Amino acid sequence: MRIFLAFLGLFGIGFAAVALLAYPLWTWLFPFFGFPFHRFASRVGMVFLLLGFVLLARRMALADRTSLGYGLPRREFLREAGLGLLLGVATMLPVVLAMVAFDMRNLRDGVTLSAQTWATLALKGALSGLAVALIEETFMRGAMFTGIARESGARAAILLTSALYAVAHFLGKYRIPPEQVGPGSGIEMIGGWFQALGNPSNIVDAFLSLFLVGVLLGMVRARTG
Length: 225
Fold this sequence. Notes:
Elements: H1 2-33, H2 37-59, H3 65-68, H4 74-101, H5 115-152, H6 154-168, H7 185-193, H8 200-224
Helix pairs in contact: 1-2, 1-5, 1-7, 5-6, 6-8
């Protein structure tokens, strides 16, 4: 649990940076760049989280390729990654199509589902999805998973990273208009991000689904490296 708590502490550092530094830095830079406060605050937290992650990974000997999840030989790594991509598309595409067909997802006004639109959506989705996944998985099922498994075993690593993975998906978007930004806005942002977690009964089904996805990904990590 020591390593798991250390990684949780990184989030605490990120939130503290938002609470203490987001407003004064935004006040200083806003006249030059005009960043929305919510976007700027999240970037401040990410920067401190990244810096803390680099330092922690090095301190705990988790900064090598194997610990981060990239230790397989190139051919084997590409084969596993390609298989994962195909399985992801095969499982998620029918879900997306069903949600559109039953009006659970509404297309933007003026969007026509032409071949060009599908190609553009697929390219944008692939690029953003891979970028987010590489960052997220390097952190959770890379260094964090390796550290917990080394200390407490693979089962604990799967369960703990899956729980954090599920919780992270409910840190919602929150916006504060520029004219309402003040010294306490950093703390307000943090409270806004956690709004969804304040009503557990409204998210329990989605939470369990995400937790089980995390378990699946953790099992893949444990079995394939």
